[in-house]
Amino acid sequence: MSPEYAQKLGEFAYVWGWPMVNMLNRRATITKAPKPAYLNGVLPVAPQGQLAMLNDYITPDETFVTCPNQDVVYGLGFFDLDSQPVVIQVPDFKDRFWVYALYDQRTNQFGQLGKPYGTKPGFYLLVGPNWKGEKPTGITDVVKSPTTLANSIPRVFQNDTKEDKQAIQPVINQIVAYPLSEFDGKMKTIVYKKLPVIQGPASDGKETKWVVPEKFFDENQLGKVLEILPPLEGEQELYAQLKELLAAAKSDPAIKEALVKTAQKTEENTIKSFFLWKNNGVAAGNGWNRSFYSADWTGSGKYDYYNRAATAKSNMFDNRPNETQYYYTDQASDKSQLEGKNNYKITFASGQEPPVDGFWSLTLYNEHHLFSKNSINRYSLGTKNKGLKKNKDGSLTIIVSSVSPGAEMESNWLPSPKGTFSLYIRAYWGKEGVTKGTWTPPVIIKY
């Protein structure tokens, strides 16, 4: 194998394997926690086979994952389901919207646990692809992952009021996961407000670098993915080629050097470009794009490796389209970059807010797809905000600017940072206009 051949194959391998290596390294960090805790006080972490929940909205200090939202209370847990089946509890959420997004190593969702699916309270057993047991007594249902490495990110809607933040506590405290060996048929409780804080990597204001180009082609990175993740139908020859590539790199320093340079170049020239919203999803109108195969990238019957990598880079843990539709843009409707030096108006015509059975929101992110702290600690507006004011004709105008629009419109103000930023609409449990892509996001007017 020549270095030139290795470089060409390496370019594809880097895009192909980027999401799975990302998942591998997240699990390695998150599961270091000796017990459920808050990493740096902002991210719920737990040992493998367990999960932890936040007790309120995620804070603007969080940089471990891009595009967080402040509509839900999040949880997080990573599992090795072939070696350790996991029980995950579903309490009685009553009328509150909730969904447990379950992701396999390829970043596809599996299973159907949530209000959109009519899931009943109970105990659900998560198992790996090689599990062949019978459903244990007391288990409500068994949910099988197509990969042994998997994770869960529960999302529970919360209104932005003191009353609801208090009312949600008993419910989220019963969102608990643990190994099957600990199952006794009784609903367990963790008071998440009392979790300890443990220290993790310091933040530089950007998302944690989960994929390191210089290490990507190491045996414990891409090599580990090829070891624990069986090929999809049609990928057998690809796996053989990639294993040959890694074997050549191990025995030939020139090939290893070529692959490191290839990884660095592909990260800079390809992966980095996936952060732009124009390179994600499909056009939705008025300058917005919308998610398409997010969290379900094999749903089209095709293996869309580039779209998968784009989603993993820009917003790693999207929900599948029937649960959530995302609309995003870096530009105003005149195609100019959104910038904090400008003021913007976004008006939803009367009756034209995102049509949903769950909830919707408009979130603002800085250039790193994270929150920038502001004077009123507000990062999104939508269903959760009961103080939004409508215009006389029933339309809803949201003001995006770096300075307050004044007392009369401050309830509808979304503060922007000084630099560039992007806007992001979430439509959870969408109605037909959302699910069929016929609803059009509003015009963003610079004024």
TrEMBL record:
Pfam families to which the protein is assigned, alphabetical: DUF1214 (PF06742), DUF1254 (PF06863)
Domain DUF1214: 323-431
Domain DUF1254: residue ranges: 50-179
Protein name according to UniProt: DUF1254 domain-containing protein
